[in-house]
Specification:
Structural class: alpha/beta
Largest sheet: 5 strands, parallel
Radius of gyration: 15 Å
Oligomer: single chain
Strand content: 5-15%
Shape: globular
Number of domains: 1
CATH topology: Rossmann fold
Number of strands: 5
CATH class: Alpha Beta
Number of helices: 7
Helix content: 40-55%
Strand order of the largest sheet: 3-2-1-4-5
Distance between the termini: 19 Å
Length: 151
């Protein structure tokens, strides 16, 4: 695996951000992964949306993302990186200590660190300050929001 997707970039796919969708469609699916915890968090948030045409589109896109993007498994190496990252943030002082409380963010970064992969975030998303963790930002251009993700 070469890239691990942060929640923000999966949200960009769900919103139809053309840059994020284009990059995903143009890369080898064997090089990307999304942690299960990201899908679990987004799935619970989507379940709480009021029924509407927009919600139906988001649900359809989420189902396709869940099928098309491979998972990053939670391994012992992920746990070790999680503990290291959490400890470093908590020890860095109150500002970063507050960010250490976001278990989802740390878990996503730990998956990327354990795989030696680049963490992919949506444009404008601030990454956790983790030395040695490569980070890239994908996407920023809106799309109509009506067409589904293409395979």
């Amino acid at each position: 695996m070469r890239y691990v997707f942060h929640r923000s970039v999966v949200v960009a796919f769900l919103k139809g951000d053309i840059s994020a969708v284009f990059f995903l469609e143009s890369c080898d699916k064997a090089t990307v992964a999304v942690p299960q915890i990201v899908l679990a968090r987004l799935g619970t948030q989507i379940r709480r949306l009021d029924p509407s045409d927009v919600t139906a589109i988001i649900q359809e896109r989420f189902a396709r993302v869940a099928v098309e993007i491979p998972r990053a498994d939670w391994t012992d190496a992920v746990t070790q990186h999680y503990l290291r990252i959490h400890g470093a943030l908590a020890d860095a002082g109150p500002e970063l200590g507050r960010r250490a409380a976001d278990a989802f963010e740390i878990a996503t970064a730990a998956h990327a660190a354990a795989a030696g992969a680049t963490l992919i975030l949506a444009e404008g998303t601030a990454p956790l300050p983790i030395p040695g963790l490569p980070v890239e930002h994908w996407g920023s251009e809106p799309r109509s929001g009506k067409e589904p993700l293409r395979p």
